[in-house]
UniProtKB/TrEMBL annotation:
Belongs to the short-chain dehydrogenases/reductases (SDR) family. Keywords: Oxidoreductase. Coiled coil: none annotated. This is SDR family oxidoreductase. It holds the Pfam family adh_short_C2. It comes from the Bacteria.
Length: 264
């Protein structure tokens, strides 16, 4: 079950800043553990190489490079490099994101545009480059990491992030219908409040640096009583990337410990 032997997975945002496991790092390592050859991309080559090192130490195969996936020319270089290395792309994981605080009045136009570029344009550009390859191969699976912020208000004023993640989900749903008869599936995973190294940076933005208070507040928000882990996201991605989910497309799977059910 859930084996990916012979498949190639292109994972954007594959590194994690600091210690611990972020979503991209956990996803890349888990896909490799299940037999996939991983091509990882990150803005920071050092943290991408750390992910590569873990995969290779466990006996897997991985190649990494740096790229800005909000730029079409970088996306082309990334896809070309993956094809040159492995000759195919069976799985695409769109896993870059950025959250900035503010409502429409407080948020600058520049920050709004940056949020749209990072959170939804990146997925558009990666899909645009990879879809023809998957169609020619006879199929593939694209999994984009969205957020519960694209579904419900979860306590933080982050209008750009919320709007862009909602747009990602609709991009996924629409494209899934277009490509359904071409055997290319597109789905989203929407994490809720996850306890990853990113939380420390979010505490600076949303809680004036009160890390312990911010963590305690996030735990209390979740009906399950605690935040999730990057592995909760990675396991869901693995299912959607695998053949066991072959009849699932155009969907968003929420991984949030009941958070959105309690807020809607």
């Amino acid at each position: 079950m859930l084996r990916l032997d012979g498949k190639v997975a292109l994972v954007t945002g594959c590194g994690t800043h600091g210690d611990g496991w972020g979503n991209g790092k956990a996803i890349a390592v888990l896909l490799a553990r299940q037999g996939a050859k991983v091509f990882g991309v990150d803005l920071n080559l050092e943290i991408a190489k750390n992910t590569q090192r873990i995969i290779e130490e466990e006996g897997g195969q991985a190649e990494v490079m740096t790229a800005n996936v909000t730029k079409a020319e970088d996306v082309k270089k990334m896809v070309d490099a993956c094809m040159q290395k492995y000759g195919r792309i069976d799985i695409l994981i769109n896993n870059v994101g950025r959250s900035e605080p503010g409502g429409p009045v407080e948020m600058s136009e520049e920050t709004w545009d940056e949020q749209m570029d990072v959170n939804v344009k990146s997925a558009f550009l990666c899909c645009k480059a990879v879809l023809p390859i998957m169609e020619k191969q006879g199929g593939g699976s694209i999994v984009s990491i969205s957020s519960v912020a694209g579904i419900a208000y979860v306590g933080k004023p982050q209008v750009g992030y919320a709007a862009s993640k909602a747009a990602m989900q609709q991009l996924t749903k629409t494209t899934a219908v277009i490509y359904a008869d071409r055997h290319v599936r597109l789905n989203c995973v929407a994490p809720g409040l996850m306890f990853t190294p990113l939380v420390e940076r979010l505490a600076q933005k949303y809680a004036k640096g009160d890390y312990e208070g911010f963590v305690a507040h996030r735990h209390k928000q979740v009906p399950a009583g605690h935040m999730g882990e990057a592995w909760d996201v990675a396991n869901t991605v693995l299912f959607l990337a695998s053949d066991e989910s072959r009849y699932i497309t155009g969907q968003t799977i929420v991984v949030d410990g009941g958070l959105t059910s309690a807020t809607r």
